[in-house]
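re: ur question from yesterday

yeah so i grabbed the chain u mentioned. its 304 aa long if i counted rite. heres the sequnce exactly as i have it in my notes:
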Amino acid sequence: MIPELLSVYAPVLTPFNADLSVNTQRFLRHCRWIANQGAGLAIFGTNSEAASLSLVEKRRLLDEVGAAGIPASALMPGTGANSLEETVELTRAAVNAGAPAVLVLPPFFFKPASTEGLIRHYGRLIEAVGSDRFSVVLYHIPQFTGVPITVELIEGLRRRYPNVIGVKDSSGDRENLARYLEVGDGFQVFPASEILLGETLAKGAVGCISATANVNAKGMVEAVANTPKLGAADAFAKAGTVRSLFQQFPMIQAMKSLLAREHGEAEWRNVRAPLVELDEQAEQKFLAAVDQLGFRPWTPEKAA
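ran it thru and got these structure tokens back, copy pasting raw so excuse formatting
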């Protein structure tokens, strides 16, 4: 059974303390804030700095999210790793936590990876988890992994595993996105940008898993809701402008700089190596551009 997923997911930023340990309470507060805007939580995504988080840290944060009462229905954890065993462990934990779907990178060290090899990897994951309570969204980000999610792979997996239900396309390649949209038969396509979502909703895209949902989730959720009456171009105009601004800067660092200012918490700027924070000049330029645009992240007080 295909779960009813949300239209917008944030790859949730991971806040770090001065010693670069995870600040769990700040993480939970950020998750609640995003969920309260009607968006989902793709914790352990690229913009979560997931590649810099250990399996132990991810398991602990997943447990904390559940203990905090954050709705499991909002979760789409990123569980992919080079190690199949680690992928199985985190996926199984996500399923046990009640997540209806997981976002899974391909194994990306041994290249080139054959279609059959990737089918075996994903198939063994699905068989090892052994549950009919979860669905798999494949994660296509070849500029980082060097391992594309091809239509051939999608079709091969779907013939064997009906719980492979969708793909996140972070390539930025419109032709590739169009090929995914042609798969059809209920296959769910999530562009990685609200700009691309606005372009493709009418063509069958179901939502987006976008970095800027960390700061503009409500604007993006409202754009999806308003598309039937306004048309996508008008509904997504403001959200697209916000996205265009953020992607002129290193996005993780830019979003963290904005949240640091909004919350008055300088530690929000912290990132783990090899990333480095925006330098003072770049941060001032970015924040000035945000102010010139007149953008502020949503707050309950502003919405009232």
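noticed a couple things. Residues 65 and 296 are 26 Å apart (CA to CA). also The domain at 8-303 is CATH 3.20.20.70 (TIM Barrel).
anyway ttyl
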